[in-house]
Amino acid sequence: xxxxxxxxxxxxxxxxxxxxxxxxxxxxxxxxxxxxxxxxxxxxxxxxxxxxxxxxxxxxxxxxxxxxxxxxxxxxxxxxxxxxxxxxxxxxxxxxxxxxxxxxxxxxxxxxxxxxxxxxxxxxxxxxxxxxxxxxxxxxxxxxxxxxxxxxxxxxxxxxxxxxxxxxxxxxxxxxxxxxxxxxxxxxxxxxxxxxxxxxxxxx
Length: 204
Hints:
Helix content is 52%, strand content 12%. The protein has helices spanning 14-25, 32-42, 46-54, 67-74, 78-100, 136-147, 151-159, 162-168, 186-201, and strands at residues 2-7, 29-31, 108-112, 128-133, 178-181. Strands 2-3-1-4-5 form a five-stranded parallel sheet, sandwiched between helices.
């Protein structure tokens, strides 16, 4: 069983590519961003450790994690962000390994992550890496429509994805095995996704 990493910037269409992969190949898809959110509430010690690190109460009256409280602390504090990530990433990897046990006999599983190429802790992770890309302005428009959020808010988040913006500008990372350019219709995206999988795995 191989790990196929699917990544891309905000509004690139990586989640749609993952849905296509799940539909066409019945593969398991591990959405790292969503799983991290759930780990704050389900992991036995993660939230306690983060609260001890930050010195803040990050829960509401019922004890549930409040993401905005953590975001407010780490958004402009890169040092604290790195320290939080040192706690989060090991917990995420343990969760992924447990999840992947159910797919041990499959040809590949998908690990979906928006930021994996920008995190040194994940260097060398995955057997193949597929990047979903589109022009920065196109990604911005899609994300605004999807999230019903102001352009300024989305653009501020995009600015933090410096590597993805560089890739959209023409640069490339050696770790990337294939690129899916999401510039047309959903039908075009489906065709491009299937073509890339054939290039990477042959006829499945």
